[in-house]
Write a structure and sequence with these properties.
- There is one protein chain.
- The protein is mostly helical.
- The chain is about 55% helix and about 5% strand.
- It has a two-stranded antiparallel ribbon.
- A hairpin with a 2-residue loop joins strand 1 and strand 2.
- Helix 3 packs antiparallel against helix 4.
- The termini are far apart.
Length: about 450
């Protein structure tokens, strides 16, 4: 009996010893897969919680910044953006020896992301599933805990920075008041929603000196005379929709990205879930990183810089929107050209000039071009989950140009808003890259 008992203990010891043998978990995270998946969940929550395009860009920028700051903390080949971005201070993180950096980066993203949305449980459930997968890959518990804790520490620093951008104060600012002055914006059908984020120009920028640093040319003088420039521009939109080709309609629908789209059936009105324009470009950034074979640090860099570009682009664009307060084509055309006319796309609930798609897409494309090159073929599958097919591009600028003109094809912007928006977005992108850098060498040269 004693011999059997002794053999049993020896067997258990041997089993325990074999279970405690070190496992090579170095390849548990190599590329940006987990980070991209986390971003996809944030996008789903942004849609679920119905955040506006400017607010969505803010969510993406700070979440991805937290993930990137882990990369900068552990790799001397990357420079921290804290201390470079407007209003930020340099933070010296003490990196524990026993962390797994890509896990810490992922934890930072999830931690920061949950601070910026409403439906935290959706993000937490996604995080828990990802963490369970990573634990199964053999990451020791002490390493796992240390990594997550370091990610949280970095996220807390980014959270402290984000808390001073005037966003929370702006939640109590007064709503936009419709003036009824000729040529000024008014709510559009079918929901007639109030103007979204009229004070977004008061949100702190990352690189711009101010929201109005790059003021665009004003729209043509408002007029209802048939021989006026304004009337001609409106007629141009009217005819573009009436004569749209299938390809132009496909382009319009692919880049719709309207989180406020409402459908009306009889007496019932219901919302249709759609990605924001910023969400579309953050998806493109993730696709580009995967296409290029980027590792987790390069992916974090691409997401952070794209998010920052989008954020400043929306601040600049919204500054002009609520300066000019220009009437949308739908309102003008219904009043002075054809009262039965309906645009291809549903008009979003904010003023006309400049086109948000044009500004944001151009800024994001400029950033992605700096990272991945002028000629970069990619398959944009960003809209597949929303019932649309893929589209292919040979450069980011090609995609941005298509995104911009899509608003004209869709009947929701005059051409000047698109043309000036492209100029504004280009300026935002160029300024950003002249003022911040993720590479120590470039940073030293800029100084």
């Amino acid at each position: 009996m004693k011999r059997i008992t002794s053999l049993l203990y020896l067997g258990m010891f041997a089993l325990a010893s074999s279970c405690s043998e070190p496992v090579d978990y170095s390849q548990a995270i190599t590329d940006g897969h987990y980070l991209s998946e986390a971003q996809d969940r944030i996008t789903e929550v942004i849609i679920h919680d119905i955040f506006s395009p400017p607010v969505a860009a803010r969510i993406y920028s700070y979440s991805s910044l937290a993930a990137y700051e882990v990369a900068a903390a552990v790799d001397p080949n990357y420079s921290s953006l804290l201390g470079q971005l407007k209003g930020s201070e340099e933070v010296k993180f003490t990196v524990p020896e026993n962390i797994y950096p890509p896990l810490a980066s992922l934890a930072a993203y999830y931690t920061m992301g949950t601070q910026l949305i409403f439906s935290e449980e959706m993000v937490n459930a996604h995080r828990d599933k990802a963490f369970e997968e990573l634990r199964a890959k053999g990451i020791p518990e002490e390493v796992f805990d240390a990594s997550v804790n370091f990610g949280k520490e970095v996220a807390e620093a980014v959270k402290a920075y984000s808390a001073k951008d005037n966003y929370h104060q702006s939640r109590s600012f007064p709503k936009y008041t419709v003036t009824n002055l000729p040529g000024t914006w008014e709510p559009t059908p079918p929901a007639y929603m109030e103007g979204i984020e009229p004070h977004w120009n008061k949100i702190r920028t990352f690189a711009l000196d101010s929201a109005g640093q790059y003021k665009v040319s004003p729209p043509p003088p408002y007029s209802t005379e048939p021989d006026s420039e304004f009337f001609k521009r409106a007629k141009e939109v009217y005819e573009a929709v009436n004569q749209a080709s299938k390809e132009e309609l496909d382009i319009a629908m692919f880049w719709d990205c309207n989180p406020y789209k409402m459908n009306v059936k009889g007496h019932v009105m219901f919302a249709e879930k759609k990605i924001t324009p910023g969400g579309h470009w953050m998806s493109i950034a993730a696709i580009a990183a995967k296409t290029a074979g980027s590792d987790w640090k390069q992916t974090a860099e691409a997401l952070a810089l794209t998010g920052i570009s989008l954020h400043d682009a929306f601040v600049a664009c919204w500054d002009e929107k609520y300066r000019s307060k220009l009437v949308r084509p739908e309102t003008y055309i219904n009043q002075f050209i054809d009262e039965e006319w309906v645009p291809v796309l549903q008009t979003p609930p904010f003023p006309e000039h400049t086109s948000g798609h044009s500004v944001a897409s151009t800024a994001a494309a400029y950033t992605l071009t700096q990272l991945f090159g002028e000629e970069f073929h990619f398959v944009d599958s960003s809209e597949v989950n929303y019932g649309l097919p893929v589209r292919e591009y040979n450069s980011f600028s090609q995609a941005a140009e298509e995104a911009a003109i899509s608003r004209f094809y869709g009947g929701i912007h005059y051409m000047p808003a698109i043309e000036e928006g492209v100029w504004q977005g280009q300026k935002v992108g160029e300024l950003l890259w002249s003022r911040i850098s993720t590479k120590p060498k470039n940073l030293a040269e800029n100084k």
